[in-house]
Amino acid sequence: MFTIASIAVMIALALAVTRAILGPTVFDRVLAANTIGTLAILLLAVIGFLMGRPEWLDIALVYGLLNLIGTLAVLKYFRHGDLAHDAEQDTKS
Q: For the chain, how many structural domains are there in total?
């Protein structure tokens, strides 16, 4: 059953890569990149379970946090053009 789940995650990964390449807007590509990260986390967890390596789940959790932080940073960059943008600047103007 976990082998079938791994195959299903690989198919979804291929579809997400296709969306990342063909996405009409930048936000479609960012969403596809976030989906690829999420599917990679699932794949790490399933393969770690199949191989009997529970420490891979820790790696998947760290990768999930990096995926979230990276996605937020990219979206902030595309919205403001700068990662050092201060939200208080908008309220003072």
A: 1
